[in-house]
Amino acid sequence: MFTRFAARCAVPIPYLSTILLLLALLVPGSAHAAKLVGVVSERSAATLAAGAHRYLDRHPAHEVVLRTRAQLADLTDAQVTRLWRDADAVFMAGVFGDAAPRLRRLMRQTPPPDGAPVLIVSSTRSVVRMSRFEGERPLIGLSGDDLEVISADPSADADPKAFMEKLAAEHPEQSEWLRGRAYWRGRGAENAANLIAWLLGRGGADVTADPPRPAAPLRYYRDGQVVSAGGLDLSEGDSAVAVLAYDDGDQAGKRALLDSLCSAVEDQGPACFAVLARWGEASKQAVQRLERVTAPAELGAVISLQNFVVGGSDGRKAVTERLKGLDVPVLKGIRLTDRTRQEWRVSADGLPQDSIHYRVGMPELQGVSQPLVLAAAEPEHTDPRTGLRFATTRPVDREVAAMAERAANWIALRSKPNAEKRVAVLYYNHPPGRHNIGADNLDVPRSLMRILRNLKRAGYTTGPLPESHQALLDRMQDRGVNLPENRAELARIHGKVPTLSAADYRGWFETLPRAIRAEMTDGPLGYLHETLREAEEAGRPDLGRGLLARMHGDLRHLLEGADHPATERARDLLDQLRAEYEALLAEKVDASWEQAQKLVAGLRDTGIEGLKGWGEGPGRVMVHDGDMLLPGLRFGNIWIGPQPPRGWEVNEELLHANLAVPPPHQYLGYYHWLKDEFGADALVHLGRHSTYEFLPRRRVGLTDTDYSRLIAGTLPGVYPYIVDGVGEGLQAKRRGLAVMVDHLTPPLSTTPLYDELLQLRGLVESFESAEGQGNTPARGRALDRIRDKIAELNMVSELESELRAEHGNPGLSLDEVGGDLLVHEVGHHLTEMQEDFMPRGLHVFGADWSAEERRMMLKSMAGAGEIRDEWRQELRRSPEREMEALLAGLDGEFVAPGKGNDPIRTPEVLPTGRNFFGLNGNLLPSRVGWEMGVRMAENARAKGSGAPQGSEAVVLWASDTVRDEGAMVAFGMDMLGVKPVWNSRGIVEGIERQSLEKGRYRRDVMFTTSGLFRDLYGQLNGWLDKSVRLALDGASQTIREKYPELTPALEAALNPLGELRNSGTESLKRNLVAAHWVADARRAVESGAEPAAAGQDAIYRIYGDAPGSYGAGVNRMAERSGSWKKRGQIADAYMHRMGHVYGAKAGGDSAHEGLTRNLGRVQRTYLGRASNLYGLLDNNDAFDYLGGLSMAVEKVSGTAPDNRIIDHSDPDNPQMQPLQSALLQELRGRYLNPAWLKGQMAHGYSGARTMGSKFMEYLWGWQVTNPGIINDWVWGEVKSVYIDDKHDLQLDEFLAEGNRAHVRTNMLAIMNVAIAKGFWDASQSTQKALARKLAEAVVANGLPGSGHTRPKHPVFDHVKARIGDGLTKALDRKLRAAGGKQPQDQGSAVRSVTEVKQAQKASEKAPSAQQKEARAPDQATAGKPASAKKPDQKNRTDAQKQTRSPDKPTRDSHIPWFLWVMGGLAGLVLIGGFANGLRSGGGNV
User: Fold this and answer.
1) What Pfam families does the record point to (predicted)?
2) pLDDT by residue (tens digit) across 147-193?
3) Cβ contact 612:566 at 8 Å
4) Rounded CA gap, 585 and 58, in Å?
5) CA atoms of 891 and 410, how far apart (whole Å)
6) Are 111 and 37 in contact, with CB atoms under 8 Å apart?
7) Looking at per-residue confidence, does 1013 or 554 come out higher?
């Protein structure tokens, strides 16, 4: 019949069949065109897409719509719900992060159709519980533990099918969910296709699905094939590397990494195989069986591609114990699924911040280290059949080769005889000089001596060793110290130390990545040029736009603060350069890279510091006669030497720049020599901390254009590090690619009172003993004596600061308080001092403590409690464990992981000798940290009365964040009135706004973060940024009603909150965040700013260094005291460096105007101290960040803020003190205390260094930043104790003897600088005595090499004016010899503006003017009349005249005449620009 109908219609049968089929599909009810909607993680997208294709091939009429989390983020709520509005089934997997609360809300508000099953697996628990079958939610009543049970995976030996059937039988109500999960966990395209069929079948479609086909949870892979454990075919005697991958590692898009990595490993020599293990129980069993399956070969190393912790939370401890048993290095390889290779290389951070905790941080808990990116995503593509946008990954060949070489080098340490191994040990000498060989709380000479002797005992070839640590130190001082500014010393050691010729260095330098070479020679613009060019060559010019915008902003700001005659010309060139780059990135035909390079050269040659690089190698740093000098000592196959200097010692102008400074050529050359000439098999960096882990660029997941990575190379690195320095230690581990070996702190005890302080305590006790007897004459006399003693001790100001803070009365004086209150305050002050812990001496790496030292430390750990036996045992064996771990690392063995922290606060950090780890940021603030932070915030709010004025500023550091579990972060959040929300596992997954009750105000808080905090805890910056926005949202309805014109700006400020938005009606009087935002946004909009931009700019509150930079710059400038004349210059440097904003929508963008605006409002600042070891005067970070912040606020607002210290080293009793009280209390309790001094004296040179290069150097830092606190009496007392031996300890003789004399010289220099700059108004006799002592010390011992004793330092003019002619001449001879002749063939010969000004001032004898200038933050804030600026204006005019002087170097005669003409024209434009700028810039641009 059908055939007859076709014939009658004259239509071919095949065509008619097709037509009828189409009609059937179009007729309603003829067949059901089923639709599945899926949401999946990027990691699993390829598998689900492949399964969808198979399903659609079988059912072409059906529809499968798939999206990733990232795709959903681009859709509106309506667009998302429209996806499943008519779905027959919904599937979700891998829903975490911001997507989870949004999808949960949308599923509740607009759920899928009633009959559609919803299967959600491998996601946030609250989302998983929304799974639905036949209208029921089978997981809704399950506890977290029950959900864990049914989410378990089978062990490696279990039958997966039987395991799932058993679970279903035990949990019949969840059997449908279990079946769906079995499809998903079975992996592979076929299981995914059947999952789709099964779900649609449950939704009513007429389709069938085969049962799940679960894959074995543990398999092995070698030579491109999956094999059995017995089929690995490894040879006896071979070393093998095991690559631990996930169970889907052999699938398309992932297999290539396994093939590439094993091929590269086997090219290095060892055999290689992969273990495909499902995360959890199977991965635990995989590790437990590694040794057995590797046999008969020997396992040499493991490369883990698994994230989080191997074995899951339940198997973590078992896996860690087995890794200890395997005793091989475990390296971390990263498959970067969320960035392409080019995106990664252009990025400022390396790894996305939200992935660091699971890719790097959690693996560290098991001793997995040295993370390298091995594969990156290919460019995304959108699947036309499903709409799914995803990417596969591709190996990065260079990185794969580096990982293979690194693994092979670790294995070589296992097999190479110790007698043949070469080891390089680097010690800290930064800032450089003879006075500063050491490390944090470590006696370096003694530690080196112990290490050398232990290496010799272990069979290393050392040759004869020095007889003692003192003999070793003498040799180190002779030729193992950096003296980059002392030309005479460089000439002396030339020929005594190894050298690297210019030709050899340049030959090696040419092998470095193009961007590195360009930055080294041409500065930041060289790096920018080459990176943009690389992006263009890779076909991704779009990637360069963000880098261009960020660097242009920073460079523009640099030029705005530059005091240089070529500044205007440079601005013009910079704008031209940006326009040229934008044209290149837009692929305009008239743009050229050659023209851009000319503009780069022109900017470089203006001579403005921060724009130019180091020039051609070998440069000027540690160079003599064209040779790089490489200080150090060789003992057989062991090299010990100082880590190279950072370079700003010979170019102090760099300290004023706001950009990161690459290391100088000699820094790179030194490590090149160690690796390629000396032939080191391993590197050891001794003690906290080195500088190489803080070199510029990415935080983790480094590329070959990161200097830290370049320095580390592929050599094994072992890094002994103080156990309480875990924050900075994590940076050394991640950026330095090192295995840490933590060591003990010094012994700690409570603080004994002494001398007048002891007398004062006795007077207080006498007064208190008469309590209840009324105002007796004896009591009155005791009170009078107490007042007299307070005045005698100069304690009035610090006691008044405490009383004022406690009572909220800024004008309160001691004369106004009664006797009982006064005595109570004095007693409390002394008790706080006594309860503080004091280090007794230094630690010697690997050296046993005495019984008394152990008793002292154990008593401190126990406090009022009992000493535990395990503490005794762990403390006793710690030193031995330290040395064992170091030697184990050098033998290529596993260094077991352990927690790092303050031993008193956290005794479980013992024993030391472990590869320490810290808390991951996703757990912070913890509930414990939150409770502590809330208590501290309540205390802070109680200190004031009435409505708070202005805003608060909180300083955040990484090291204290590790110690206090995020208490200072919690403090800031609670001041904003915002609280974290934790999930059942303690992970912070959200925030919520707290209501304003009981007259509370929502305070405005800005945060300044260290570069280390940004790197380690950047996700906390995100939560803090959202906390500020959520605080603003508390008054958003009020703002809309009162200021409707600000609605667009408000929306821009609140949009990043996403699901957290919660509009409120708070008043602007109570909500200071909102009040300040309104003022700033209105001002910006009225000035013509685009509303969205104005709204964003007005809400930023988190500021820090530029990406890849570290430090606020204050400590460097304080140490280089000749680099500035007035405090305002240091405040400027702080604001230059810290003017980068971070948060949900900002990753370090230049925002200097916003920083200045926020600084102007700051009334109170807070710095937390969570360590029992570290205080305010034993590190330079405290005055760098808090002192710098205070000085910047002072400069902007005219008044220093109320600076407060929160001491929460005792978590049960946090205390808040004014900075003045805390600082001076620490000064008296520790650094003027005979008990502390005796402990340091026992360590000879290292103890002297602690006194000088730490305490006195950092006291000077506080003097500069907070001159109102460090008064004349402080310097008088310091001189009395350290120079005049007030305590009769023979301290004066101790400091003058041997190598300690260099420390004393630097101490004398600091005192003279304090006088010369007007900070210390010393008597004339004191000035003359200190000047003579410094001059005599320099004549006798030479310059130590510090920043205060550079040959051309202005302090020597001050000194020479106060000593006799004969001593002056002798001093001049020393200074001239040290100053020497600079290398003429290296870099620019142009003198900096500062040097020109200093030369102009050299003969002037006007100390009073200089003193006033130095003390003021700047002339404006000091309240000086406009005429006070005239001397500076005169200097600037004189400097310009000098740059035009005819006796400047003339251009070479071979330059063609037309270049002379062009140079002359450029010179007219530059108006006296530097000669080198005229010579090169005019010809290039």
Assistant:
1) CobN-Mg_chel (PF02514)
2) 989 998 888 888 888 999 999 999 999 999 999 999 999 989 999 99
3) no
4) 46
5) 8
6) no
7) 1013
What is the value of pTM for the model shown?
0.90
Beta strands in 1295-1357 (DSSP E): none
CA distance 912 to 750: 22
Tokens standing for residue 299? 């396992």
The answer to whether the beta carbons of residues 1011 and 1038 sit under 8 Å apart is: no
The overall longest dimension of the chain from CA atoms, in Å, is 135
Degrees to nearest 5, angle at CA 682 with 680 and 683:
95
The token pair that represents 1138 in the structure block: 């810290």
Strands, sheet with 1140-1143, edge to edge from the N-terminal-most edge strand:
1146-1150, 1140-1143, 1102-1104, 1005-1009, 951-956, 1162-1169, 1202-1207, 1215-1218
Instruction: Specify the pLDDT at position 443.
Output: 98
**1157: exposed, middle or buried (Cβ count in 10 Å: 0-12, 13-18, 19+):** buried
Token pair for 428: 């800290």
**What pLDDT score does 1437 carry?**
36
* Residue 987: C-alpha distances to residues 124, 137, 140, 965, 1028 (Å): 11, 25, 21, 12, 20
Among 1109, 1194, 1015, 1196, smallest CA distance to 654 is for: 1109
Tokens (6 digits) for 1214: 């946090």
Name every residue whose Cβ is closer than 8 Å to that of residue 230 and which is 6 or more positions away in sequence. none
Query: DSSP character for 329?
Result: -
* Amino acid, single-letter form, for residue 263: S
CA 396 to CA 390: how far, in whole Å?
A: 19
Cis peptide preceding 296, ω within 30 of 0: yes
- Residue 416 clears pLDDT 80, i.e. is over it: yes
* CA atoms 166, 172, 177, 179: torsion sign: positive
Task: State pLDDT tens for residues 572-586.
Answer: 999 999 999 999 999
Parallel, antiparallel, or unpaired: how do β-strands 218-222 and 271-277 relate? antiparallel
Sheet holding 369-377, edge to edge: 225-227, 218-222, 271-277, 239-246, 298-304, 330-340, 369-377, 393-395
pLDDT tens digits for range 785-843: 999 999 999 999 999 999 998 888 888 899 888 889 999 999 999 999 999 999 999 99
The tens digit of pLDDT for each residue in 885-900 reads 999 999 999 999 999 9
Which of 95-99, 298-302, 319-323, 516-520 has the least mean pLDDT?
95-99
d(CA 1349, CA 437): 16
Residues 1138 and 1188: beta-carbon distance below 8 Å: yes
57's CB contacts (< 8 A; 6+ apart) are none
Let me know if 779 is exposed, middle or buried by CB neighbors in 10 A (0-12, 13-18, 19+). buried
Name the pairing type of β-strands 748-750 and 837-839.
antiparallel
Q: Give DSSP secondary structure letters for 262-324.
A: HHHHHHHSSEEEEEEE-TTHHHHHHHHTHHHHHTTSEEEEEEE---S-TTHHHHHHHHHHHHH
**Three-class SS state of 76:** coil
Residue holding tokens 């938005």? 1061
Report which DSSP code applies to 866: P
**CA–CA separation, 1170 vs 962, rounded Å?**
9
Task: Return the structure tokens found at 11.
Answer: 């239509």
Rg of the chain in Å (alpha carbons): 34
In 1070-1136, where do the E strands start and end? 1102-1104
Residue 382 Cα distances to 45, 388, 390, 1422, angstroms: 11, 5, 7, 63
pLDDT at position 333 over 50: yes
Query: Which residues does residue 93 pair with via DSSP β-bridges, in sequence order?
Result: 40, 121
Structure tokens at 801: 């600061």
H helices of 653-776, in order, are: 665-672, 707-712, 726-735, 755-769
